């Protein structure tokens, strides 16, 4: 999975950190998640603890998308086979399928081909009826991959506001609150189009706390956010949106445009949402592998957020405490965490939150022995780069001032690349948010 793995290793701590990263991503594979969560016995389709009688429906269609959309489409075909009549899924990691059209989109900034693909998917949703069972596949990255500009808004308007929000350091739920109110698909929009069919959503979550309204901007989930809140978010981060978006939000605030559907809306009467994999899925796999290798595991949190470079310092502090005092666990140990950190763009370089997390940690670890850290985005795309993240240790930074300058310019990619620290996986076919692994060897191992 990890390209040029040999160049990234070099020590037991780094090797184990990379093994843990691979184990976590593999555990979140949508094919594995669907195999464990979905089954078919005759006409009885079971998802989690819910069952659906396929004999009660005239057709089965598949809709949706996201980073894991291709893998999910392939997996659901493996379960249902010819019981699927038709389908359209949008992703940036295509898979070979027979019944479901897998169409292209782009991430993290929406594209024209994503608009075309999403339009085809929404056309199919519009054709569903009460006798339809609509299986919706949703995963992280869906907000950008499935753009459906609302009337009067252009793709360039969406791209401009998305890029501004990503650079501002806004949290993902804030970014999505704006995108939902500029879309014909997000914020319950797909559920509204598919009503009154029965909608069964299978969700691979990349969101802290699995907030259904935030994952891929909640196409089949109620939206508690409002036009007023979307406008306030743009104001809070000093973003001056394109005129068409500003005008739409203003009209929404004035009640001239229908709000996104909330929890009381009847479009959700026949909608079931099932989370089949999330960040904890990956962390459990890391925990189990660490235990197998004789390392004491600790899941620090699935909800780490905030500025990447600052969160990294806290992680290093915990690792140092473990190594120095044996608290809260004794070395050798593996500490892992999930969630999603952010980067406030101040410079004009290349990188991403996981790369900044890793370099910030490396600065703190300089000269330390027996500690290695790997940090990746599980979809294989960290920020707008071709790297998933990076692996570092106490030898990764020789000159702290140069490293700090790279952070200040948000230009960490070339710094890490020169030191054979970038982790590249390509598109992984899943997305359960960030995954970070700290390996702390026992003091005796370095004597």
Automatic annotation (TrEMBL):
Chain ranges of the MOFRL domain: 334-434
Enzyme nomenclature, EC number: 2.7.1.165
Record InterPro entries: GK-like_C_sf (IPR037035), GK_N_sf (IPR038614), MOFRL (IPR007835), MOFRL_assoc_dom (IPR025286), MOFRL_protein (IPR039760)
Gene3D superfamilies listed in its UniProt record: Glycerate kinase, MOFRL-like N-terminal domain (3.40.50.10180), MOFRL domain (3.40.1480.10)
One Pfam family per UniProt: DUF4147
Domain MOFRL-associated as annotated: residue spans: 17-250
SUPFAM superfamilies, sorted: GckA/TtuD-like (SSF82544)
Gene Ontology CC entries for this record: cytoplasm
Top-level EC class: transferase
Keywords: Kinase, Transferase
GO molecular function annotations of the record: glycerate 2-kinase activity; glycerate kinase activity
PANTHER family: GLYCERATE KINASE
Protein's name according to its UniProt entry: Glycerate 2-kinase
Organism name: Halalkalicoccus paucihalophilus
Gene: gck
